[in-house]
Write the structure tokens for this entry.
Amino acid sequence: MGGRGPEELLERLGIRVDPLFPKRSWPAETTIRRVLARIDANALDRAVGTWLAGRQQDAGGLRALAVDGKSLRGAARAKGRRVHLLAACDHVGGLVLAQMDVGEKTN
């Protein structure tokens, strides 16, 4: 969004000023749920990751990385199989550098 203010963002999201009540009217919870359900999760992950990487400061020298796996609570595939992610995190900035769905939980 650059340096643009929240008014422009609200306009882009379709949140208009009510002429009878000059405050912003917020979308209903069901609208927010529908919008979130239509988002391409991989594209969002890449966009947020790119934005965060741009904010990462170079610590210089060697980097320490942590690699860990997690089972996502409340997320399941067909037939009830849980979602398992493997992620690599930078110790200095706490930035997740990459993550991927590994399918099955293993050691």
